[in-house]
Write a structure and sequence with these properties.
The protein is of the alpha/beta class. Helices cover 36% and strands 13% of the residues. It contains 20 helices and 17 strands. The protein starts with a strand and ends with a helix. InterPro entries: AB_hydrolase_fold, OHBut_olig_hydro_put.
Length: 576
């Protein structure tokens, strides 16, 4: 194992492992915790704000959503954290690893929950899933950001992010991401490390297990040594984190893991599934026209009001000019674009959820992040001539260089995929130019260039391998997921497991989409169910199976129902 020096911190009294001392009221508060000195927050301040942001992103904290009453809790959990930068062989940049060791660790049923952050989020990204389930029951929890995260490098100030989350100048401290000198303004580890981190997510999880066991020796020396033979190790992850734990299961040749729970995993199964870059670049290209189709009229009004925030007619015209739409009547372009998505395997339910969360600036930025990662770009490489810049709006709405006060919030607030405060993609000159960007990003998948060959090879390297025959794998996926549709991911993966006689449970959850954090918006909370209660139930079921020998349940499509404008009740969730 190759790790940086370890930073230990204690979290007791007015602080804790699960909520950083914010408790129920602080996590639910609309205002993020503030820094006493805006330009120079302390490590405790950035940690508290990062935990707040991670909770808000991945849990339904709306008054009617049921978190903390029907399921889950914000119990204060005192204990210690151990942080380090971990290096995989031949990797240019590290991934973060962070075990949390509760004071009330259960020595009689010693347990380590290992998890990877969802999306491109930072180290605390999975705290509402793995931390909220594992820590209160006396398990230690080991996190990895799997080579992503918000440790952005800013060339204007020549600063990056230290192990403790604060910013420092190049050469003065070990940084999360320290690229070679560049003319580009912002460096993002996921995009610009040159490592294709997505291909190594499984290795990051297994390295987090190793580091977690080593830190358990340090935290509880009277119970050492901690090994995979004497410690129950469960892996759990959401979205990209779900992919990471499943990929770890496929690499686990020594039986380190005892069980895996993956929630809405972005999993690529060799030869039988569409990879994430393929279907998201397709959606980014076609949704701008398809959203004007009659099938989306009600959803568009719920999301945008009476008018889309961009000219769907111009989007359709650009697609027709590129030969992707063939109807002679422009009024038919939206339905033709929708039909293309349906023909590609998108389900109506996934498209409806996608219509509610569709934001073209986000699709454009995410496409650039993933294309850059798969093409192994440096900061000064510009796929499709796109780049991130450090800009913010001043009091008059004009764009100015990002200031130190805003940069200080990046690590805590950022989700690993800008745009957000102080980092942006320069806007396209007009809507036709925006479509050209989508065409270019899509061309890396469909084209015949040398770059397209590199990208497709990098995507192929992210495919999962089969887990051990006796390893229980439990998949939970929302049937209405519009970001990672289960048809493209979990369906194919579970079919592959079954065809190869692997142990699996597959829960399909009707009326559930991808991210519980979006349900704080009333229109989404009324329509969709949270997934975290199903993840906690799956972890409970897996624990009973491993600890007590209970039989795993059969795979099922759960009988659920939306809560509408009512308080969430157990009957809505279909968990029996």
């Amino acid at each position: 194992m190759t790790f940086s020096s370890v930073m230990e911190s204690r979290h007791r009294g007015s602080d804790d492992l699960l909520t950083a001392g914010l408790g129920t009221a602080g996590i639910r508060a609309e205002q993020a915790p503030r820094f006493a000195v805006a330009e120079q927050p302390t490590p405790d301040e950035v940690r508290r704000r990062a935990i707040y942001a991670s909770w808000r992103a991945n849990a339904d904290l709306s008054p009617q959503g049921g978190y903390g009453t029907l399921y889950g809790h914000f119990d204060a959990v005192p204990g210690r954290e151990y942080q380090a930068f971990a290096y995989l062989p031949e990797a240019r940049s590290p991934h973060r690893v962070l075990p949390q060791a509760p004071d009330a660790f259960d020595r009689k049923a010693r347990c380590l929950v290992v998890t990877a952050s969802p999306g491109s989020r930072g180290i605390y990204g999975s705290i509402a899933l793995a931390g909220a389930w594992g820590l209160p029951r006396g398990c230690a929890v080991a996190y990895t950001d799997k080579g992503c995260g918000s440790g952005y490098f800013d060339t204007g100030s020549d600063t990056g992010v230290c192990l403790d989350g604060t910013r420092a100048a190049r050469g003065t401290a070990e940084l999360e991401f320290e690229p070679p000198p560049a003319t580009a303004e912002v460096g993002i580890k996921h995009a610009h490390s040159g490592d294709n981190p997505d291909a190594r997510w499984g290795e990051c999880v297994l390295q987090a297990v190793d580091f977690g066991l080593a830190m358990l020796d340090r935290a509880y020396p009277d119970a050492a040594p901690f090994t995979a033979a004497n410690t129950r190790i469960l892996a759990v992850g959401l979205s990209n984190g779900g992919s990471a734990v499943l990929r770890a299961a496929g690499l686990d040749q020594h039986g380190v893991l005892d069980g895996v729970v993956a929630l809405s995993p972005n999993i690529h199964t060799p030869t039988v599934s569409r990879p994430f870059y393929d279907y998201t670049s397709e959606a980014a290209l076609l949704f701008g026209s398809a959203l004007a189709a009659p099938a989306f009229a009600e959803l568009v009004r719920a999301r945008y009001g009476e008018q889309l925030p961009y000219p769907a007619a111009q989007h359709g015209a650009a697609l027709a000019h590129a030969g992707l739409l063939s109807a002679s009547d422009p009024a038919a372009w939206p339905q033709e674009a929708l039909d293309c998505l349906l023909a590609g395997g998108w389900t109506p339910a996934a498209l409806q959820a996608g219509a509610l969360i569709n934001e073209m600036p986000i699709w454009r930025a995410a496409g650039l992040i993933y294309a850059s990662a798969y093409l192994r770009c440096s900061m000064d490489d510009r796929p499709c001539n796109l780049r991130f810049v450090a800009r913010m709006s001043d009091a008059h709405g004009a764009l100015v260089p990002t200031d130190a006060k805003t940069r200080a919030t990046w690590w805590a607030d950022g989700n690993g995929i800008p745009p957000h405060d102080g980092i942006m993609l320069p806007p396209a000159a007009d809507h036709a130019a925006l479509v050209d960007d989508f065409l270019c990003l899509r061309g890396f998948w469909t084209g015949t260039s040398a770059e397209a060959d590199v990208l497709r090879a990098s995507v192929a390297a992210t495919a999962a391998a089969l887990p051990a025959p006796d390893l229980p794998v439990w998949i939970v996926h929302g049937a209405d997921d519009g970001l990672i549709p289960m048809h493209f991911s979990s369906d194919a993966y579970v079919q592959w497991l079954r065809a190869n006689d692997r142990v699996s449970v597959y829960w399909q959850v009707p009326h559930a989409q991808h991210s519980d954090g979006l349900l704080i918006w009333p229109a989404l909370g009324a329509r969709y169910l949270p997934l975290l209660p199903h993840a906690y139930a799956a972890l409970d079921g897996l624990w009973r199976h491993l600890a007590d020998g209970t039989t795993l349940p059969a795979s099922a499509t759960l009988e659920t129902q939306p809560r509408g404008d009512r308080l969430l009740e157990a009957t809505h969730l279909g968990l029996g």
